[in-house]
Structure formats: C-alpha cells, structure tokens
Amino acid sequence: MRRAPEIVLSESDRESLLTWSRSRTVSVRLQQRSRIVLLAAEGLTNLEIAAELGVDRILVGRWRKRFAEKGIKGIEKDLPRGGRKPSARRKIESAIIEATVNGAPKNATHWSTRTLAAHLGTTQSMVSRVWRANGLKPHLVKTFKVSNDPNFEEKLLDVVGLYMNPPEKAIVFSADEKSQCQALDRTQPSLKMYPGRCGTMTHDYKRNGTTTLFAAISQLDGHVISMCQPRHRHIEWIKFLNKIDREVPAGLDVHLIIDNYSTHKHEKVKRWLRRHKRFHFHFTPTSSSWLNVIERFFRDLTDKRLRRGVFKSVAGLVEAIESYIEHHNESPRPFIWTATVEKILEKVGRARAALDKIETD
Length: 361
Prior knowledge:
361 residues; alpha/beta; Nucleotidyltransferase, domain 5; 3 domains; 5-stranded mixed β-sheet
C-alpha cells in the first residue's frame, strides 16, 4: 500500500506557510496549498485533509508530494503547462511592441488596438493580448516634472528631515493656499443614485464666486488650522500666520513647510518673521509640490467634498469647507512620511538621466 510522504517543516517554512494561509493578498491557490502542507505536517492523511478543506484527494496528494520533493519553492509557482505554443502571436508580437513604443498613426498621438491591427494586418484581439502581456497602455499617460532647483538636494534634506526627525520643543506644519475654490451651482437638479444606476449631475454649471483656503496640517497629530479668505495676497497670508501663532501653545517653535509662492517671501512677511522669532519657514524645491503633505489633504477635500458639491454662494462653499475640516479635526490622523532622502534622490536621478538621454538623442 502506498503511503503519503511524511512532511517535516522547519521554523522558517512553518512561518511562511502560516502567513500565506491567513493572508488576504496572496492567491487563493497558494492559500490552499499552504493549508494542505500545514495539515500534512500535523500527520493527517490525504483523505482527512481533503475532507477538512473540501477539496479533491488527488489535489492534496499532488501538492503534498510536490512539497516533499521541492520544499516551499515547489508550491509557490505552477509548473509550465503543456499545449501548443502560440506561434501566431510569436510572429507578430515584436512588430506590435515596436510599433506601439516607437510609432504613431499619421492622424493621432497614439495607437488604438483597432488602428494598430489594421496597420499591421492582424486582429484587434491579438494586439490587445500582446499589450496586456507586456503592460502596454498607449491610451494612458502620466504627468511629471523633474525639479531644476539648484538647491534641490539641500531643500529635500531639510523638508524630509522635518517629516522624519522633527526637532524637540517644536511643532511642524505643512502649509499652503488652495486658491480659486469655486462655488459652482449646476444648471439642472442632479438625480440620485439607485440600484442599477449611478448618480448624475449636469456637465455645465453656474459660477457663484471663489474663495481661497489657507490651511496648515500638523505633522504631529494631523490637526488642521485653516481660514478662508476672498484673496490670497501677503496680507491674507500674514492673517493666517497670526492665527497659527494664536493657536499653537507658547513655548513651542513653529516650523512651516511651504512652497516658493512669492506671497510667502514678501518683504512684509519677512518683517513679520523677524518679529516672531519662533516661526521658521522651510521652502520645498521648485516644481516639487509632492513634498508638501498639505497637498494630500487638499486632494481629499476636493474628492470627498468639493468636486460633486453644489454651492449657490461663496458663503455656502466656505461653510462646506469649514464643516469638512471641523469633522476632520474631531479625530485627526497625520500623514506619515516614509520615503527616505536616498530613495527620492535615486528616483530623481533616474528621471534626470532619462531626460538627458532624450535631449542628446
């Protein structure tokens, strides 16, 4: 009578299998295989494991044997399957990739599956399969901007240092203005969502004025200090600085991470700073708004409250913004910065090298 191979697990293998068997991010197949091996290590027979997991006994035997022969690597990946090799795709794949990456139709900026198929004399489904297999998405484009600030590294070290290692007896804020927040009213009533249909809103709108949101988010606890003003000159910026000064306890230095907007560097602002010694400005490099955490808060505000909002007046818009921030401050959470200076410089270095190569070609 044939006996199933005995399974003996090392501590590291057991930890890996336990992690996979409970994980929600690994594939269902790997979860199942991990449970099979763990039960086999407890001495259960293939029939008992099959009954426990509700699977076929032959499946249990296959993965038990695979683990016994190849160890943990034997269950991580499937073996190559048989079947006829895709000869038709192999003939045309390189041409599809070459045309997609290095070419474009005469009357467009990029190919579609149908236009490229017609150009190469193949089928739309063939182009689609090749694109999926090679991660090609000509219809999508990402925006970027590499900073040309001559003091980029120095400013980067300063800002990231504040995020990851803030000074003692001080509080760090990420601050900025969200200008031109528009009070938009739709030209016709919106229809509510119901099962089987999403909500609707008209594509056109009425403009009922604008406001500018000044906001600073604490890197300590995520609390937001804010105010709305009709304009965003140095006068309003100084008003906002005075509000921060009133709300931050005395005895604490205040470090503000801000961008290079001219309002922040106005002569009257500099005089204000000389009178308020505990305030310190830290400027992000030019074209590096991604370094300013408050931009993430502004994005959430726009997505969750403003983009679909209907505002018949500026007062209604301001009320909505203040209500959102008040609700946020009831249980604030900070945005935790995790990217190190080394990783950022490495990524920026690759981007600059790619740009330099394009310019020299």
